[in-house]
């Protein structure tokens, strides 16, 4: 097994995508520390791994505080003797438009996603460096962090920030042989289950049936298991040369997101004053970049009525 003898922490792994990541890491031979805020959910996740011969223990605590990060790393070391892999998946949503978003809505999402990723990676990386372990840091991003999404100021900020941190960590941890990558999953989740556009795909997934090819191929939208294989690969020794990357995965598709680069570069003697832009502002207006996700129309056979329609 590719991860035999490795030890992994997966935050937010009681259910959904996080659970799929933990289960795949265990299937590949890793011992896993499960994390969730609900004790019963965490216990069920552990049982789903141990019942098939895998190794797993749980830490029931919210990510964000440094104390939780320390507890996660200490549990891995106390239970299995080391730590090789960290997957930072824990997250919450507080969606609403900018003018209705409260301080609490913003702070809650930033604390769990952004601060939670920072504190757990800091603790794990410190342990790996001190013990000369060429570890693997895998942080979970989102298409929202790459392109924006209506009603998700807090989530977009957190996910964009995570990718920015990953690029910095790849530089800082390179000498220690520790890789840091971001994975951008596109899969059926509790969030996508509420979106009518994805209804046919979610419906098939819930029935245990293959998703229509339109979703898997054209949209790169699939199941949690489709993402989990990439997580396990990035956690392996085979991926030692891959670091600082943002990797999109969903359905039958995998992507390597480009780092932000200038789309257009032009010069104006003396600089770009207000007057210069007023006279020759086409450098901006003719080169506007797209924002948000744009989906093609659903084929007629995959359309479903909106809830309540």
Low-confidence stretches: none
CATH superfamily of the domain at 7-187 and 223-257: NAD(P)-binding Rossmann-like Domain
What percentage of the residues does DSSP assign to strands (E)? Answer: 5-15%
Number of beta-strand segments: 8
CATH class of the domain at 7-187 and 223-257: Alpha Beta
What structural category arises from helix and sheet content? alpha/beta
What oligomeric state best describes the polypeptide chains here? single chain
Per CATH, the architecture of the domain at 7-187 and 223-257 is 3-Layer(aba) Sandwich
H-E order: EHEHEHEHEHHEHHHEEHH
Main pleated-sheet profile: 8 strands, mixed
Q: What best-fitting shape do the alpha-carbon axes yield?
A: globular
Distance between the termini: 49 Å
Discrete helix count: 11
Structural Rg: 21 Å
Strand order of the largest sheet: 3-2-1-4-5-6-7-8
Q: Classify the fold: give the CATH topology of the domain at 7-187 and 223-257.
A: Rossmann fold
| Integer average pLDDT | 94
